[in-house]
Amino acid sequence: MKLTKRQIQHLYWRAGFGPDPCNLNNAVGKTAEDLVDHLFKSSEKVEYLKMDFSKLAVDRKSLSQKEKKELRKLANQMVYELDVMWLEQMVKTKAVLREKMTFFFHDHFAVRRKNPKENVDLNNILRKHALGNFGDLLMEVSKSPAMIEFLNNKQNKKNSPNENFAREVMELFTLGRDNGYTENDIKEAARAFTGWSAAKGEFIYRPRLHDNESKTILGKTGNFTGEDVINILLKEKQTARYLCKKIVDFLIGRPIPASTFDSFVDQFYDSNYDLSILIKSILTSDVFYQEETIACKIKSPTELLVGMTRLFEIDYKEPKAIVQIQRKLNQVLFFPPNVAGWSGGRAWIDSSTLMLRLKLSSLLLNFGVIEWDEKGDDPEQMLIQIEKKRDKIQEKIEKKINAHPNWKSFEKNMDGHEDDLSAFLIQAKLSEGAKVTIDKSDSVSLKDKAIELLSLPEYQLF
Amino acid sequence: MDRRSFIQKSALASGMFLLPSFLKGMEFISLDKISGFRNVIVIQLSGGNDGLNTIVPYGNDIYHNLRPQIGKSAADIFKLNDELGLNGSCRELMDLYERGEMTVINNVGYPNPNRSHFRSTDIWHTASASEEYLKTGWIGRYLDSNCQNPYEAIQHESSLSLIMKGIDKKGIAVTDPKQLFQSTREKYFKSIVDHTQPSLLNEDNQGYLYKTMLETYSSAEYIFERSKIYDTKFSYPTTPFGKNLKGIADMIVSGLKTRMFYTSIGGFDTHVNQVVSQDRLLKIYSEGIGALVEDLKKNDRFKDTLILTFSEFGRRAGENASKGTDHGSANNVFVIGGNLKQAGVLNAGPDLSNLDNNGDIQFKVDFRSVYATILNNWLEVNDQQVLNHNFDRLGFV
Lengths: 462, 397
What we know:
The complex is a heterodimer.
Chain A: H1 5-15, H2 21-27, H3 32-42, H4 65-92, H5 96-108, H6 116-129, H7 134-142, H8 145-150, H9 164-174, H10 183-192, E1 196-199, E2 202-205, E3 215-217, E4 220-222, H11 226-235, H12 237-251, H13 258-270, H14 275-283, H15 286-289, H16 301-312, E5 315-316, H17 319-328, H18 351-365, H19 380-400, E6 403-404, H20 407-413, H21 421-425, H22 432-440, H23 446-454
Helix pairs in contact in A: 4-16, 5-6, 6-7, 9-10, 12-13, 12-14, 13-14
Chain B: H1 3-13, H2 20-27, H3 31-34, E1 39-45, E2 55-56, H4 61-66, E3 77-79, E4 85-87, H5 91-98, E5 102-109, H6 117-126, H7 138-146, E6 153-155, E7 172-173, H8 177-184, H9 187-194, H10 205-227, H11 240-254, E8 260-265, H12 274-298, E9 305-310, E10 331-337, E11 344-345, E12 365-366, H13 367-378, H14 383-387
Parallel strand pairs in B: 1-8, 1-9, 5-11, 5-12, 6-7, 6-8
Antiparallel strand pairs in B: 2-4, 3-4, 5-10, 9-10
């Protein structure tokens, strides 16, 4: 299947964080299979997030109350640094597909901990297996200290079980809510997970805390361990079905024909949960490139921010301001609202977040000003007033947000393609109101025109 | 009528995408027609307020044994009855209590309590069970099933919380109506709104974005124009919380058709040296409420107002080693209003001889019963439609 420019852009938005203007033209005329292969090739290398935790490696027992408090503060601070670090990686990486699927699993295995090392370790597990085998991923995530701590498996002991992890592994990570398991399956599975614990940032198994009696889980009986439960869950075809549904929703974002969906499920299950096979099938399917699929999704705050930052090579002199914006848009990485992850889709949009989203490009690219004016002459007196007001806004936003795009590079990238600006920046069809407003504009510079387009509601879609 | 044309028609009816001049003519109703609109102000004491040092079982020896360092003695409190007393920082609340304008409901919570701030706040906001993850808040669902316009539920804060989000409708977050109005009137956005065709407002995501944009545009105008009517000269505490309450009073007295308000005051997570910080926060809370009630009374709107105060959880019954308390479970909630059917202490205080395995107070009243009572008895709407289940209703209104 040979792709149009619009379809190629669509592929790069869904499988990454938007198209690069420079390699877009090389891609025209290539097939979906070629381009998807190339995406996988670019993602072969795993670039782990790295952070120096030496400052946190102190013996807590020797600390005073005040020092302990300082240490907690530092750890908390480092989780925010991690958030910014990952955003930066999404912006700079060539392995966009791997980062995109890491982002998917960051929501699927949503964990919220104030411990930066646990967070980074879990995040790197997601990255390592994001295009690999889901079974391996599930096993490693389940044993990660972040998950063990977050879902209280440390407190899950023989004779006093804690069902938190056993419940969520079925409800959220494999089968899906109310899909073929009972409260009793949860109770029994919790017993199998007893003894799984963590210490000093590593998984440990404590045999003395493990319940060695027989358990019955999903109709099977035996002296099961935690590993056995994970394998039992992977044997259930419903797990493949549930994962497929979530991944199809993430990559395609609208209902697809049942026969197509079933073929994805069969393939995923028969391949023993090979994520790369599933993702390849989805990204080369007809339904993925249909007109109805293009621009049917609302960008998450991360996709919105990263997409804009990549394209304009924005330099943030004030990283705290970015965290502030993420917070106002309701998505700070490593801070999912709960174990079910972010609600996503339309839940991102309310009156406050939408206004900020519409203002975002002007805030990041032009210190808060959309230089839009209708064609025609304003009286000179009014122009002076407008200028004054504008300067005041810019001064304020420069102090607050202090983001600097690289316009030279953008202009160079767009050289010769200025007339395609709208089609390049916006995937959705422009509304009447948008068209009229853009047509009326008296802007001439590429910069002003770009900001106008990015301030349209249509830019929220991809 | 199919859904699409219904949305378009109701959009027309609410003046959503029309010119500001049209809105002005339509939305303004005379003040006497407005009074009689009952409203609810929901306040969250964020961080987990220690209920045991707010409504103090001062006559209970177990209480003093559990809290040798931070316990309140009879001299520190206002006596409510022989068993319970109100924290001494809450003079204004005591006045309300004495006038029969305040109800205390003890031991409010839910089965299998969660002790994480985030999770337990979600549970209170969504009115879910402990193991259930809902994506909508109960005020949002109230909007979905009973309201036309987003501004019928207003959060007096800068961003919108889960409690305010329904499926089709979401409330509006606003602290400064003028600023919200001006941000929507940026001439670029105004041009888009002015030229938007009703046919665009369909069910796809683009339609949803435009619908939200137009609703924000028209709500911002409505709130700004309407709330200019009354700007209280009454003196409120200058704390951020006091300012939020003043903003809410302005909106109520101005006759906004808002039925639900939500705001919060943070800092109640008192793990260390609790007494000083909690008493300070309770004073801010009490002074704010005192001013709000007096202002509303002066304008004859207190009789239509109900104020619900909750916290995501109570705190551990026993104090910790840092003169503070850790996260607990069941807690007391306050209902304040000019038209209560049952004032005073509604039920028995916490049973300190019968704590749970964590050393926490066991819940006796499901928090969703409090919501059901407000929805059904006060706002006179179908509570089951909003809460998805049938909960026993209480008798305070």
